[in-house]
Structures are given as structure tokens and as C-alpha cells.
What we know:
This protein is an alpha/beta fold. The protein contains twelve helices and six strands. Helix 2 (27-33) packs across helix 12 (246-259). The chain is globular and about 50 Å long. The mean pLDDT is 93.
Amino acid sequence: MKKTADFNQKPTLIFIHGMRGNHHGLVDLARYMRNEYNVLVPDIPGSGDRAELKNKTNDGYADWLHQYIAAQKFTQKPIIIGHSMGSILASNFIRKYPNDIDQRVIYLSPILRDRKAKKRSIRLYRFAKFNLSIIPPFLAYAIERSKLLSYIISHILVSDKTKQKYIDQLHYRYSGRFSSHKSFIADMKISMCETTWLTDKKNTLVVFGKLDTMTPYQYAQNRCKKYNIKFKLVEDAGHLLNYERPAEVAKIMSDFLAENR
Length: 261
């Protein structure tokens, strides 16, 4: 990647997307941020056009992101922004490579679970994995990539029904672009069995939709208080606030970054 003088002077944001997604899911947010920042939205390994990891675990993803950042040869440490499962990946990367990035970190709709919710989600993961394992892999892969699954996920996670058609169209076009059935199962395990790791060692912002069905916002807010993390609630938005309220979310992020230079 060729660097210009302007690129080297501006801080860089690296967005990490979630399960079944790719960079297209965060493009709306990236557009609002690109005037003030260099914005990178890579596909995670096994998604979009990026090759799959041999070790598709939290640890493997952390190593990939470490190598990705090193390859860019930044003159300033980048700022990490994770959405949904991307927040899990980003937080575990920070645990392993805390010095690779800026002190400022942003999580959008992070997945946070108490013990009871985590046990329930693990049981659901095992149920889904078992049912997918008893059908031929090619058929399981077709189901995992299907418009039907995109429709179901979209209608569970979207709260603003005035944007349902727009989000459905994006999901039909871009979601499900992953490399294999094995890749899907690996990401499903992370998304359903892990949680976003929070720490007070970074200057962190969490942006959360009040209608998020993945995690009750009250629980997320209390977790943030424990670690002295700034918490911003977006009204009338759910887990997919990157689609539902991109301008508002971008403003929240921009304000946080400007106030904490």
C-alpha cells in the first residue's frame, strides 16, 4: 500500500467486521469517517476474498491482525474499531498485542454475556453444530450462505423496520461470502461461545443500540462502568446500528476520538 504525506499525517482507523459479514457491512460508517481519518476495512480471513486461516480461533485471528498491521508500516499506531464478533476478535487481539495499537479503542455492539447467557449460547451453538453435522457438508454450506439465513438474521437483529428492506438487500448481496462450512462453524463458535474482553488499560468507547437483542443494554452498561469505559447508547437502534444509525454512530466516534487525542 503506497503511503502519501496526507496518509502519514492522519490517524488510521481499522474496522473489524462480524460473523457472516465482510467489509461491505461497515462501508456506511467508513464513509462518514474518511475525511478526518485513513480508514481500512479489511475482510477477516475466510470472508470476502481473503484466504482462510489454518488456525481459525481467537488466537489465530490475533496473529493475523498483528501481521496485517505490521505489513502496513504505519507511522502512527492505528485505532481499532470492532463490530459484533469483530469486537471479540479485536479485544482478544488487544490482550495478546496491546502495544500494536493506539490507546483509543471502539467497540460497536460488542457481544457481552453473563454466565447464564453464555451457558445458554453455548448450548445453542452445540445444537446448531450438531444439526449441521448430520447433513452433507455441501448442503450445510449452501444453507449457511443462503438468502434465507440472511433474512432470518436480519429480521432478528434489525429494530428499525423502516430500514428493513434496505438492510435485507445488503445482506442478500454481501452476507454469506465466506470460504467454507468449516470457516462458518469456526466463526459461529467464537460468536456464540466467547465474549468481548474488556479492560481499563485502554481508553475505550462502547456504542450500543438500546434495542440490541444480542445483549441487554443494561448489562453492557454495567460492565462498562466496572472498567471505567465510556458507554454511549443509541436510541431506536439494535445490534446492526452500523446500518440503522451510521451518521449518529460516526458522530459519537468522531467526538470520542477528538476529545481523547
